[in-house]
Amino acid sequence: MKFLVDAQLPVRLARFLQSEGYDTLHTRDLPQQNATPDVFINQVSIQEQRSVITKDADFVESFLLQQQPYKLLMVATGNIKNTELEELFSQNLQQLVIIVYQ
């Protein structure tokens, strides 16, 4: 299972997913880091079969219209602390994985 965490989400989330055993990149790990265009993120997602985790609504449109990225997990929590976001993922990770990879 592979993830790519988008720029609006903390690197800490990517590192948490890595610590849970998931092959995870953050946009900061890519050559253009947080300035990586959505088109490139979609390409990496498809080529490496990575699910994109994002808050960016533009990915919803590209997913629905172009079936890009490979898989999409939209985070719609509003503004919360990084620790709260990590706790949400920690409490719900197994369910999220099942839903994303059905």
Defining traits:
102 residues, alpha/beta, four-stranded parallel beta sheet, 16% strand, globular
Q: State the distance separating the first and last CA atoms.
A: 12 Å
Helix content: 40-55%
Strand content: 15-25%
Determine Rg (CA atoms, Å). Answer: 13 Å
CATH class: Alpha Beta
SSE string: EHEHEHEH
Backbone structural class = alpha/beta
Strand order, main sheet: write it out.
2-1-3-4
Shape: globular
Oligomer: single chain
Please outline the major beta sheet: 4 strands, parallel
Structure, described:
Helix content is 47%, strand content 16%. It is of the alpha/beta class and 102 residues long. Strands 2-1-3-4 form a four-stranded parallel β-sheet, with helices on both faces. The chain starts with a strand and ends with a helix.
Quick summary:
This protein is of the alpha/beta class and 102 residues long. The chain contains 4 helices and 4 strands, in the order βαβαβαβα. It has a 4-stranded parallel sheet, sandwiched between helices.
List the helices and strands and how they pair.
Blueprint: E1 2-5, H1 11-19, E2 23-26, H2 38-48, E3 51-54, H3 58-66, E4 71-74, H4 82-100
Parallel strand pairs: 1-2, 1-3, 3-4
